[in-house]
From TrEMBL:
This is ATP-binding cassette domain-containing protein. GO terms for cellular component: plasma membrane. Residues 4-216 form the ABC transporter domain. It comes from Marinobacter adhaerens. It is a peripheral membrane protein. It is found in: Cell inner membrane. InterPro entries: AAA+_ATPase, ABC_transporter-like_ATP-bd, ABC_transporter-like_CS, MetN_ABC_transporter-like, P-loop_NTPase.
Length: 216
């Protein structure tokens, strides 16, 4: 599955509705940017979509979810944990298989972090940690990417390079982005969220930055 049709998406906290009810239909090949001001509901919507799509998604959550005590290799390998038998994962914890090490190393190379393979995640900077979560999502190789501000801790050139990589590696994606220029440059469809509802849903070519800024 690389497209999906979700309806009746709702979320509430302490009895207060923060999302929906809303529907979202995503076709295979859509590269959706979720935009909207802080607190609009983008992260909550990504979580709701992940609950529905689950194993078909590669997720980059805003909180990253790295295990500090484990190496960069093992954090990336976690992207495929549910695709291997328990014995394979247990052996990998002690001593990774050469093929997996090579695959992860190649990914880290593409993310400018080749020399970090064996280091614990605790020793990384914020931007490096974010790239490990990105590598984990790419390594998972699911049909759909769900990402919540995946390049927020990266400098401009690195953010562009990572967005290019994500665009090339995933046919279908939904990415929450604060950076309107990145949204317009790397996505094919812009979905604006306002007060938990879809306030804008347009192909990228119909929009300029000022159209999106009206959401803020
Ligand atoms: N765990 C929670 N408990 C209570 N309220 C929450 C919780 N998570 C989110 N909210 C509320 O839900 C609303 C939407 O939050 P959400 O994190 O989805 O927004 P967002 O658009 O992703 O914001 P940002 O761009 O700042 O990440 C906000 O009003 C927020 O306060």
């Amino acid at each position: 599955m690389s497209g999906f049709d979700l309806s009746h998406l709702t979320a509430s906290f302490s009895g207060k509705r923060v999302i929906g009810p809303l529907s979202l239909q995503v076709s295979p090949g859509d590269k959706v940017a979720l935009v909207g001001k802080s607190g609009a509901g983008k992260s909550t919507l990504i979580r709701l979509i992940h609950e529905r799509v689950n194993r078909d998604a590669s997720l980059i959550p805003q909180e990253l979810g790295l295990v500090n005590a484990l190496s960069v290799f093992h954090n990336v390998f976690m992207g495929q944990l549910d695709q291997h038998a328990t014995w394979y994962n247990t052996l990998t914890l002690a001593r990774p298989f050469a093929r997996d090490r090579t695959d992860v190393q190649e990914l880290l190379q593409a993310l400018g972090m080749a020399e970090k393979l064996r280091l614990p995640a605790s020793s990384l900077s914020g931007g490096q940690r974010q790239r490990v979560a990105i590598a984990r999502a790419i390594y998972r190789n699911a049909p759909v990417l769900l990402a919540d501000e995946p390049v927020s801790a990266l400098d401009g050139p690195m953010a562009n390079s990572v967005m290019t990589l994500l665009r090339d590696r995933f046919t279908t994606s939904i990415i929450a982005l604060h950076d309107v220029e990145l949204a317009l440059n790397y996505c094919t469809r812009i979905v604006g969220i306002q007060n938990g509802q879809v306030a804008l849903d347009q192909p990228r070519e119909n929009l300029v930055a000022s159209d999106i800024m009206s959401l803020y």
